[in-house]
């Protein structure tokens, strides 16, 4: 199987040049899926993010949270310098992976993904779970994309898009997040338009969502029901 070959290809990699905490997180077990988002096995975060494995088709499940405040501003984060993939890139509020555990594998009502979103919002931004309850996450759709970070690492994910509107308290984990900012829709458009001129780097999944979906969703932030598409996996490849 391609997954078995991919897992074998990741052994023996020297991670000593990377941040100790980020290396520790590379042992977390991601959910390996097929092209239709069916869970088929588990593999370490390290295995899932090596381009040698991605090039053989290894695919895992992910999520992207877009958190808005009561003024309809989006919380952006700049990924920490210590991050192994896409360091110092700006991205949506929180991007990560549900883990291959019973709680985060649960698919009914996307409960596993919602639990993972709560967990990572707390880990990265210090947002307490009670401020972002499960039922407040609006699951919109899924995107399938692939993107290299450098010659060694990259992403190949089916990414669940979650919107949530909440006023939250932040306590930034500097090992995960370098900076944050709240932006209006126009400010977001200006950041994207001027990114090359200002040297602002955006994560590839965020750029794809920005180009394809973000502003129509944002414009209907208080009435998203008609925009939800739970059947389609958008292949942005």
From TrEMBL:
It comes from the Eukaryota. Gene3D superfamilies: Nucleoside Triphosphate Pyrophosphohydrolase. Keywords: Isomerase, Isoprene biosynthesis, Lipid biosynthesis, Lipid metabolism, Magnesium, Metal-binding, Steroid biosynthesis. GO terms for molecular function: isopentenyl-diphosphate delta-isomerase activity; metal ion binding. Pathway: Isoprenoid biosynthesis; dimethylallyl diphosphate biosynthesis; dimethylallyl diphosphate from isopentenyl diphosphate: step 1/1. GO terms for biological process: isopentenyl diphosphate biosynthetic process; steroid biosynthetic process. Residues 58-208 form the Nudix hydrolase domain. Its EC number is 5.3.3.2. It catalyses: isopentenyl diphosphate = dimethylallyl diphosphate. GO terms for cellular component: cytoplasm. It holds the Pfam family NUDIX. Belongs to the IPP isomerase type 1 family. This is isopentenyl-diphosphate Delta-isomerase. It comes from Coemansia asiatica. The gene is IDI1.
